[in-house]
Amino acid sequence: MRTLKEEIDPFAALNGAFQGKGAFLYLPPKKKLATPLHVEHIFTGSDMATPRLVLYLGKESSLELIQHWHTEEEDAHFANAYMDATLDEGAHLYFKNIQKEAPKTHVFHSLRASLKRD
Question: Are the CB atoms for 56 and 30 separated by under 8 Å?
């Protein structure tokens, strides 16, 4: 509730208000994934989607993250995604967002990062 009260980004606040499902990913210190991690978002209905992803990368860890957005129907879709990434000292995040949606689909994506040295 404190985060929701202090939020100034209206789309991040909307995500927090309607957020129902999300994921938390922790990468331990000095861990480097050899292959990219893929997150797939697939629209199957016309309800608003509010996915939330929270990442924590430990000291000197490295992650390549690729998010894919897919629409299977021609209906109108609205997604309001939020990612909160915390990178400890010397950690690296390589992020790619790929959207393949129908013309009636709208995806808003808020990204907040807390970064330590290097």
Answer: no
